[in-house]
Design goal:
The chain is of the alpha/beta class and about 325 residues long. It is built from 13 helices and 13 strands. The chain binds S-adenosylmethionine (SAM).
Length: about 325
């Protein structure tokens, strides 16, 4: 949780807000997430904290007072907040799935603002519970070699489709899967044509072959056994991610894990999917080579290749699967 809140602070500190970034922490509990941003980011903004629970709103009031801060504190169901007010960031951090709050969150967010969502129903999103995923996210999700990324892409895909219902779409700015939850920061983009092209060019399906090969395809409908529909566009705005990493290095020097996470997010290769070299080595019936030598081998062949934050044993690459298998087969084992 601390790690996720660190990332939140670093991102809020560098995000190119339009005007003063009024923020709504929509399911705020103690308010800790955005109180930390108020205290640590160095940006000046008007914050509103909402929770349906009386004890939570009292606690938020106390936490604001302890920190010498003032903000609006609202006791309400998030879904009942009037749409008269709009915010540059709306945060949805429920117990479990954010899916049922996404549409109201998008409606409350200004264009170019951020919809920030946490999902803790990782079993549904990553494919361990296909029936729940079908019900909550209107998607077919099964276990796959890159299950954590599938989870994030399913969540974004669902949100992009909901945004389409009122002629908007989303662009991911930063997304991570750590400490048993997923967190996505999505820029809201207005316009029916932008929405149409996102749904046409950024939504698709994943097919996984017997040798672990991943085929990500743009298509309206999946075929039997395919996973989707899911977001197959970029997961990161590299410029914002690099700025957030630099900010964290300057201002959170002692938070090594946070800096490493944001740096990895900023440097992850853009290709969809990641490959676990232990799993592929298992398919090839051999011991895995050191990860660095696989990355070097792929880069020597002219492909992009990077580590991924999704797993320490994972790599992201645009190499054809055949080249990945060749490199893993030909490098000496650890
Ligand atoms: C996981 S906690 C939020 C954690 C918080 N964002 C943090 O970082 O500490 C979920 C909160 O959502 C509140 N909640 C659940 N459903 C809600 C709803 N429909 N509207 C507003 N608040 C809700 C709960 O009372 C609880 O305090």
């Amino acid at each position: 949780m601390e790690l996720s809140r660190d990332v939140n602070v670093a991102l809020a500190a560098v995000y190119p807000w339009i005007g003063s970034p009024g923020v709504l922490d929509g399911l705020a509990a103690s308010g800790a997430r955005w109180i930390r941003v108020l205290n640590e980011s160095g940006i000046d903004f008007q914050a509103s904290f909402c929770d349906r629970d009386n004890r939570a709103t009292r606690l938020i009031g106390r936490n604001l007072a302890i920190n010498g801060l003032s903000a609006n504190v609202i006791r309400s169901r998030f879904e009942e907040l009037p749409l008269d007010d709009h915010f540059n960031a709306v945060d949805i951090d429920p117990f479990g799935s954010p899916a049922s709050f996404a549409e109201h969150g998008l409606a409350l967010t200004y264009p170019r603002g951020l919809l920030c969502m946490t999902a803790t129903d990782t079993q549904a999103l990553c494919g361990s519970s296909p029936t729940t995923a079908a019900r909550r996210y209107d998607a077919r999700v099964f276990m796959s070699p890159c299950y954590a990324e599938v989870g994030i892409r399913t969540l974004i895909g669902h949100t992009a489709r909901r945004a389409g219902t009122f002629d908007c779409t989303v662009e991911p700015v930063l997304c991570h899967a750590v400490d048993h939850h997923y967190r996505v920061y999505l820029r809201k983009v207005k316009g029916a044509r932008r929405s149409d092209s996102a749904l046409k060019e950024r939504m698709g399906w994943l097919r996984v072959g017997d040798m672990g090969e991943q085929t990500w395809v743009l298509r309206d409908r999946g075929e039997r056994g395919d996973i989707g529909p899911l977001w197959i566009g970029p997961l990161t705005d590299p410029d914002v991610a690099r700025k957030a990493a630099a900010w964290a290095e300057r201002n959170m020097e002692e938070r090594k894990r946070t800096i490493k996470l944001i740096r990895t997010l900023a440097e992850e290769a853009g290709a969809a999917g990641y490959h676990n070299i232990n799993e592929i080595s298992g398919i090839l019936k051999r011991s895995p080579p050191p990860l660095e030598t696989v990355l070097e081998g792929l880069r020597d062949m002219g492909h992009t290749a990077s580590r991924t934050h999704f797993t320490p044993l994972g790599i992201k690459t645009d190499a054809p699967h055949r080249d990945l298998l060749d490199v893993i087969s030909s490098r000496p084992c650890q």
